[in-house]
Every structure is written in structure tokens, then in C-alpha cells.
Amino acid sequence: MFLVVIYGVLWCQSVWAHLGSGMLLGLLWMQSAYVGHDSGHYVVMTNKGFNKLAQIVAGNCLTGISIAWWKWTHNAHHIACNSLDHDPDLQHMPVFAVSSRFFNSITSRFYGRELKFDSLARFLISYQHWTFYPVMCIARINLYVQTFLLLFSTKRSVPDRALNIIGILVFWTWFPLLVSCLPNCGERIIFVLASFAVCSIQHIQFCLNHFAANVYLGKPSGNDWFEKQTSGTLDISCVTWMDWFFGGLQFQLEHHLFPRLPRCQLRQISPLVQALCKKHNLPYRSLSFWEANRWTIRTLRKAALQARDLTNPAPQNLLWEAVNTHG
């Protein structure tokens, strides 16, 4: 795919070829992220050295997102799945809030700071069910920023920091250079937006797996880890020949219960997980991609309407008052 993208940009003159190359690059980023995800959970190569190389190439070099940043956040996500104060994958204030509990300005135990629900947060969250998809189209920008913040942080110890930085420099060498080879500024913008928009499908998928599921405060304790995983995840149902597109993560619960199990085995163990959940009266939810979108938007809309409630105390500003003026 990478070679086809390069060919489309350098040797094709058609704007449609350039647009298609941008879309293919977005698909490449999706599939490369799945390789990074697989190699981050378990050894997919012949030894750990080659596995680390696969992580750096698939993550840092091709997508521009540090595997070190991914491991840092993803491990916490698996340990405390859908915990509002421990799971970084739910902590998107002030842009998104999946629960009204965020309106109490809870403290993130992962980032070690308060997630403030101020006037700006209230305004943005009040329209989050409308802004969700547009934000997803440019969500990669935030991932690039988070990568730089971690790799150049002086407060955190980052494993293989130098190797991760080199990988990121590789990405920020070839990607701007490739974009600069397009004939004009308009096509460059279209190319970047097309690649971001296609890859946003993956960002949306990650949100579908958890945004509409059950949430809680605190961390798992005792024997409730299994129950927290089942209540905090949603599967995406699809036909077998689409497994490659979702990277195996449509079996989100199966992956959370067996994170070191290769993706090609997740479909096979799905009936076993369903039977186990049924035996212990635990939720097992598998929705179509479109139905999962409906659930997610419904969750965001519910929190948005709660944020608009003027009886809920929060600082107001002129912009908020102007947008919500009646009469």
C-alpha cells in the first residue's frame, strides 16, 4: 500500500489519483496500527528484537504515533477498562464526556490532574453529538501532539525513548516530503484530509467499543475485573471476510479477556465467551457497526443535554448565554 501511495503521488498527474492515494494512505495507517497493536500485546515475530522493530516501523515510522505512548495508555486502559478516573481512553475533557459524572470535575488518576468542567467544557460537550464525527476526522492531530508530549517529557521515564524519537523523525521526514510533491496547495490539503478522514473510521471504531458501555469510578478490586471487562465493552458484529478491516478488535470483549491471544483466534473463542457470560448472567453485547454508532451518539447526546441543564452549576460566559438564549 505504501508503494502504491508513493506511485500515485509521484507518477500520476490526475487529482483523482492523488485523492485515491490519500485515502489509501489512511487505510495503510489503519492496518499498520493493527500490526503495532498486535506486536505491542505479544511477540508476533521470531524474537523480541524483531518484534520491537515491527513496533517501531508499524507505529512510529509509518503512522507517526509512538509505540511507547500507546503502551503507556493502552496498558492502563486494559487494567481499568471504562473507569472514568483511571482509564485514559475515556478522559477527553473538555471536548467529550460520556457520563455526567465528569461534570463534577473528577481527578484523573492516570494523568494526575483535575478534569475541569468549566464554561468551555460545558459549551463543547453540549454539542458533542454533533461534533463527534468532525473531531474524529482530525483526531490524529491529538495523537501526534500526545506522542511529542510524552517523548520529550522530562518528568516521565520512557522505555526506548531514543529509538522512539528516531522512528517519529522518520515519519516527519517522509510524510511532509511526500505531501510537498503534490502540484499545488489545494491538492496537498485534500490529500491530508482524505488520509485523516479514512483513518477516522478506526478512531470511531475504538470509541464504539467503549463509549456506550457501562462506566464507573475507581479501579477494579477483588474478583470484579472480569465483570468490569464485560460491562465496559461492546463487540462489533461483522462477516468473517471483514475481520481484516477491523483488525480483530471487533471482538473487543474477547480481546480484553485474552489480550495476548492472536487476533486470528478471537472469532473462534467468541462462542466460549458468550456461553461463559450467559452462565454467570453477565452482559455480552454484539452490535452492527451502524447500531453501535447509534448507541454511541445516543450516549453522547444524553450527556450533552445534561450539560445544557442550566440548573447544573458551572461558570457561564457570554458565548454560552448567547447560544442558549430563548425568547
UniProtKB/TrEMBL annotation:
Q: Which Pfam families match?
A: FA_desaturase
InterPro entries xrefs: FA_desaturase_dom, Fatty_acid_desaturase
Chief subcellular location:
membrane
Keyword Acetylation on entry: no
GO MF:
oxidoreductase activity, acting on paired donors, with oxidation of a pair of donors resulting in the reduction of molecular oxygen to two molecules of water
Q: Which UniProt keywords apply?
A: Lipid metabolism, Membrane, Oxidoreductase, Signal, Transmembrane, Transmembrane helix
Residues making up the signal peptide according to the UniProt record: 1-17
Domain (Fatty acid desaturase) ranges? 15-287
Q: Does the keyword Oxidoreductase apply?
A: yes
Tell me one GO biological process term.
lipid metabolic process
Where does this protein reside within or beyond the cell?
Membrane
Q: Which GO terms describe its cellular component?
A: membrane
Superkingdom of the organism of origin: Eukaryota
Task: Give the transmembrane ranges.
Answer: 130-150, 162-179
Q: Which family, according to UniProt?
A: Belongs to the fatty acid desaturase type 1 family.
Protein name in UniProt: Fatty acid desaturase domain-containing protein
Species this chain originates from: Arachis hypogaea
Recall the taxonomic lineage recorded for the source organism: Eukaryota, Viridiplantae, Streptophyta, Embryophyta, Tracheophyta
